[in-house]
Amino acid sequence: MVSLTYIRFVKIKFRNRKDLKGLSMIADSPKTQPSRKVKKKNFSTSLSGQQVSLYTLKNKNGIEVSLTNYGARIVSCIVPSQDGELADVVLGFNSIDEYLASNEVYFGATVGRYANRIANAKIKLDEQLINLDKNAPPNHLHGGTKGFHSVVWEVSSADIDRIVFRHVSANGQNGYPGVLQVEVTYSLNDSNEITIEYLAVSDEKTIINLTNHAYFNLSGAGSGSVANHSVCINANFFTPVNEFMIPTGEFRKVDGSVFDFRTGKNLGKDWDDDDTQLNRAGGYDHNFVLNKNEGQKPELAARVTDPESGRVLEVDTTEPGIQLYTANALDGSDIGREGVPYESKSAFCLETQHFPNSPNQPNFPNVELEPGKRFTSTTIYRFII
Length: 385
Description:
Elements: H1 4-14, E1 45-47, E2 50-52, E3 54-58, E4 64-68, E5 73-80, E6 86-88, H2 96-101, E7 110-111, E8 117-118, E9 122-125, E10 128-131, E11 140-141, E12 154-158, E13 162-169, E14 180-188, E15 193-202, E16 206-207, E17 211-212, E18 230-233, E19 235-239, E20 252-253, E21 265-266, H3 276-281, E22 285-290, E23 299-305, E24 312-317, E25 321-325, E26 349-353, E27 368-369, E28 374-384
Antiparallel strand pairs: 1-2, 3-4, 4-5, 5-6, 7-17, 8-11, 9-10, 12-13, 13-14, 14-15, 15-28, 16-27, 18-21, 18-23, 19-20, 19-22, 22-25, 23-24, 24-28, 25-26
């Protein structure tokens, strides 16, 4: 059970939350100040004959979210503090060239066809063995070398508060069967909610697991460690991993462990503990099994508070899991738009998802997509300022 403290928080905080609008449909198958915003011209280019651009969503409260169709990714997210000071809370770069040259390729990107890891880069569909791109030997990671993070998406519509990206993934791309049509819609409202809606259809049976890989630092990108960010995750269980970062299939209770975030604790409190799971990942890089009710509406999954700025980030999702990642692999080799190196544990990711390696774990939630059926998923990043 979730602690009484957490239950009280949910009921009081969200008693009057309105239902979300319906999902869209695929029709044809140091702190960044305002003067340092990314510039559209730095993203205006052509890659493999396809136009890349920068798009910005704005609301009345001063929040601005910039996105590019290269990887259908979040480039920048400017949010006021409780004192009205603006900062960019998403790690990223000032130009498309820097994204292309970065060592970390997933900054802010849409990840797919299958987010997270698949053991030995192999799956079975209807007893047929399928080999996927082994881009993280011996495993498959985040859709493969030419995953959704590395393609130029079509922009089917764009407005001040909503943008729709589309992509058609070819049959056999990185080993995946079926022609997959994907739509990702970002919207920003005056309740300070960034809503991401995913929709996909395939002409053959395939697997799918989509997420966003934004790196957050609520004190401002480039401002150093997120050790003092307080995190609450609505999960009684997590899925422990083996030495290759593949879930063992176990659902392990968080109670009494370094993975217990149910009532909230600072990220850095335990991340250097001599714990086998933390040692394997170099920090947190684990899937949490969310406490979910029946139904398809987004539910509260996590809440992060930065005591320095007073910014709060809440994450709602329809997904059964969420990956907490403390940017362990960042090594300072990428210099962000603030002019400082992005170091290990200088950000956190909360990747809503089905579980890693689900195709090879029959007790994990199903990730198979039947031909002609619709995959839908919704995640909401909500800022409280």
